[in-house]
Amino acid sequence: MLALLLSLLQAAPQRTALLARLRTMGMGRAQSQRLLLLEMLPQVLLAAIGGVLVGLAVIPLLGPGVDLRALAFGAGARDLAPFDIGIGLRADPWSLALPSIALVALACAVLLTQSWLTTRRRESTELRAGDRAT
Questions:
Q1: pLDDT tens digits for 69-111?
Q2: CA torsion through residues 104, 1, 50, 56, sign
Q3: How many Å separate Cα 63 from the centre of its chain?
Q4: N or C: which end of the chain has fewer CB within 10 A?
Q5: Which residues contact 59 (CB under 8 A, 6 or more apart)?
Q6: d(CA 53, CA 40)
Q7: Ranges of H-type helices in 1-134
């Protein structure tokens, strides 16, 4: 999530200048918001789907190596004879899906906020040549 937000923040000045240019050519606010969302969507969806797939793969790989008896029964559980008590790692679909949904929602909120902020500014301040070094 941090990498995605840093990526969005790094590209913000270029995105703001592009939106200002497109707005001077007649692009409306709703169109600019759709453009930002479509620009961000592939990157965020790949990150969300990748996170779910990694979570699904980690559970079967780590499950046999993790002993949860000490966590379930306390410190004296190591003295117990090893027996199957039904405690193990399981993949909960909601535990994997909710962070991915939150990632997509956060990225959408950041881009919509940026779009709203750039529409509040005047295009002339963004398009002035020579004011800032690029």
A1: 666 666 665 555 555 556 666 778 888 889 889 988 988 888 8
A2: negative
A3: 26
A4: C
A5: 89, 90, 91
A6: 20
A7: 2-10, 12-24, 29-62, 69-73, 93-120, 123-127
Q: Which two tokens stand for residue 112?
A: 């919509």
Are 89 and 62 a contacting pair, CB within 8 Å?
yes
Q: Could you report the per-residue pLDDT of 19-47, keeping only the tens digit for each? A: 778 878 887 878 877 888 888 888 888 88
- The CB-side HSE value for 31 (13 A sphere, CA atoms) comes to 10
Q: Locate 87 and state its tokens.
A: 């405690």
- Nearest one of 41, 89, 98 to 66, comparing CA atoms: 89
